[in-house]
Amino acid sequence: MLRVDATVDAEGRSSVAQEILGRWAHDAGSARFFRSSANFVYRFRRAGEPHFLRFADGAERRRADVVAEMDVVQSLADSGIKLASPVRSAAGRPVETVKTTLGTFHAVVLPALEGSTLEIEELDAAGFRAWGAALGRLHIAMGQLPDELIGRRRTWRDDLAIAGRHIPADARAMRRELAAVSTVLEALPDDAGSIGLIHFDFELDNLVWRDGEIGILDFDDCARYWYAADVVFALSDLFNGRFDSADPSYREFLAGYEAGRDPGPTWHSAAPAFLRVAELLRHARVLRALDLPPELQQPDWLARLHRRLADRLAAYEASLG
Questions:
Q1: Residue closest to 142 by CA, chosen among 76, 71, 195, 74
Q2: What is the DSSP letter of 167?
Q3: What pLDDT shows up at residue 242?
Q4: pLDDT tens digits for range 199-231
Q5: With contact defined as beta carbons under 8 Å apart, do 114 and 210 qualify?
Q6: pLDDT tens digits for range 116-153
Q7: How many Cβ atoms are within 10 Å of 114's Cβ, its own excluded?
Q8: Angstrom distance (rounded) from CA 38 to CA 186
């Protein structure tokens, strides 16, 4: 991330982003930095219309996973779900793999969705119902995708295995938590009504609201899990680590969901386990992020972020006992 972000000038232009964007038609000189994390994202215009370039280092994401994601997105768009479907490159491909002096990157272009993103404090009861209804519609559409397409996405078992590789042997509390949540999940039903492809990150920052419709962004983490987990992951800011089935906002969300889809019998009983999974995976990613080479010269902002993440990880481990 540091190497790519170092190419960004004072006006938000990047030579690497421009090189990658050259695979698509675009308005010259319009690309500007938007954000960077696992993905690098740049805004640009194409025939005057706003679009986003998104690319990831090949060491972070496999091309096959990005292609599978775009196939899922296109299939959902074809079924009527409101989302940003991939724009094909000049060569006719939804995903381009570009070798640069900084490495190999897998890139996609997506149109910007018009509308507003909302904060959880801005939602009234009707807003929570609309949010839940949108997730219910998405789950119905995802459940109708071909098995071949769903099978190309990772599973909850993959996630726990990846977490296990990043949790060191001496992190005993996290190791115990990994074993405990694995046992709980293994005992849950795995029928087609309970488990399938989920968005995984259906939080408000990935939703765009306009004229009573909700557009959906960011499918790069979609995976095969329990549908109930998607609700818990979406409402993680509301629960703040503690599931409360009596919370009025949760009840409104669930009412919206149930208007279109039956959540199934294990919904409430499994919810606390899914909160634990979300926390475990989040902190396993923190562990990975903290695994920086000791000789790396960190800029001040990175050193401050490193300290904050280390404090967050320590607090989580302490909470596990």
A1: 76
A2: S
A3: 86
A4: 999 999 999 999 989 999 999 999 999 999 999
A5: yes
A6: 999 999 999 999 999 999 999 999 999 999 999 999 99
A7: 11
A8: 29
